[in-house]
Amino acid sequence: MLRKVLIANRGEIALRVVRACRELDVRSVAVYSDADAHAPHVREADEAVHIGPSPSSESYLKGDVIIAAALTAGADAIHPGYGFLSEREWFARAVRDAGLVWIGPPAEAIAALGSKTAARTLAVAHDVPIVPGTTQALSSSEEAVAVATTFGFPVLLKAAAGGGGKGMRVVRSAAEMAGAWDAARRESQNAFGDDAVYIEKYIEGPRHVEIQVLADQYGTVISLGERECSVQRRHQKMIEEAPSIAVDPALRKRMGEAAVRAARAAGYVNAGTCEFLLDRDGAFYFLEMNTRIQVEHPVTELVTGIDLVQWQIRVASGERLPFAADIAPRGWAMECRLTSEDPVNGFLPSTGRIEYLHVPSGPGVRWDGGIETGSVVGLHYDPMLAKLIVWGTTRDQAVERMARALRELIVDGIETSREFHLRVMEDAEFRAGAIDIQWLERRLPSLLAVPAGEEELRDAAVAAALIAAGDRNGSSARGVAAAPAPAESPWEALARRQGLRRR
């Protein structure tokens, strides 16, 4: 087993890796920028190393500084988490060249799968179905029109070097191609430093379903089933669940086998995810492979009972996978990504100090967060604050449990996506599982139609009820002197800010 792991990340995923290390009796080393000097992951790790100013370009993206920190701390491995340098082939190679263990796939596998066009070529060669389109970057908008004509409009222009919706344009006719071509290339260059663009047939109304794979160093590659990730805004996932309501055991087996073939073809080791589009007729198409742990990994953990982060460390330590090839999901898990955004105001970022945080709990509720009361939320990093995850025996129970947990959650001091997530849980179409990757964009106006004053009234009612409960619990019996009045509680502070007072 590895002795000491440096975590080249921040926030909730850094804290998640710290916990995995602790349970494995592996020491952890956090890194932090100026903005994160007092962050929970820094405090919880066994050691912490300062790596630079607040901007990620001067800290979390400085590979040489992070490797130097690992060597100075005496770490023997680096866990990259997700985002930042997690899918950079050059960083994985530099970690290895420095004599450290990279907790992830080989640099060669990252290189083989890092380009979407290269990944499509690999998929075709190993009988993994892909969306009709090109496997090489196109040279001009005229060539794009010629290719699109062979399988018909609409088509999708996509950046070869990246994801997250950057460099992506839907083109519904030849007349739209030139403008879309220029826009896609420009956006791709700005986002990824590479203006290469390829083309795919645009699939109307598909679901986004991904398969979690896990592979050891001895040739064992297994599928851990699917995750449904269709609730997206601007190509960014917002709610994930496992399993998918659209996937039966036979389809799960076929998709799992395709994902395993792709991973084997790339010489994959460690945890990874194959992403697919699933159309209305049950046909699925490979999109790409994410060569890291995913944000949504907890839903797979809850339905399989397998700690993916611990197994990342175990595999990197040379352990063999002991699992059977076919692992059926048990129950239903769901995850909401809590972000520091104001949904009612176009999801504008919200910054400030978290004055009070109340985390939900109870049966089947898990909180993976990187914040606490007193945390300062700025604009330097991704707006995701935490992940709220629940498990139930059925999808209906998971939805009800998530709604209950969201009602319990209180984040005072900044705007968050909590209310938005609660409204999704209450939506009849979502509850019926009638979703696809365009569903949220269609439903967003009605989901965000908040009656005037509703949010303030809800918060005030919660605060008032809790103050009343505190009064009842703290009152003295008749004839017994009352205790001195306590200092203002967090609940009373919340009520005061909402315009209430103790009566």
Can you give a write-up of this model?
- Mean pLDDT is 91; it is low at 475-503.
- An 8-stranded antiparallel β-sheet has the order 13-12-9-10-11-14-21-19.
- It is built from 17 helices and 22 strands.
- It has 503 residues and is α+β, with helices and mostly antiparallel strands.
- It folds into 4 domains: 4-103, Rossmann fold (3-Layer(aba) Sandwich), CATH 3.40.50.20; 132-201, ATP-grasp fold, A domain (Dna Ligase, domain 1, 2-Layer Sandwich); 207-447, 2-Layer Sandwich (D-amino Acid Aminotransferase, Chain A, domain 1); 454-475 and 483-497.
- Helix 4 (89-97) runs antiparallel to helix 5 (107-114).
The largest pleated sheet is described as: 8 strands, antiparallel
Strands ordered across the widest β-sheet: 13-12-9-10-11-14-21-19
Query: How many helices in DSSP terms?
Result: 17
Whole-number tally of structural domains: 4
Classify the helix fraction into a percent range: 25-40%
Helix-and-strand structural type: alpha+beta
CATH class call of the largest domain: Alpha Beta
Which percent range describes the beta-strand content?
15-25%
Q: CATH H level of the largest domain: which superfamily?
A: ATP-grasp fold, B domain
Low-confidence stretches: 475-503
Number of beta-strand segments:
22
The coarse overall form would be globular
The whole-number mean of residue pLDDT values reads 91
- CATH fold assignment of the largest domain: D-amino Acid Aminotransferase, Chain A, domain 1
Rg measurement, Å: 24 Å
**Per CATH, which architecture of the largest domain?**
2-Layer Sandwich
User: Ends: how far apart?
Assistant: 60 Å
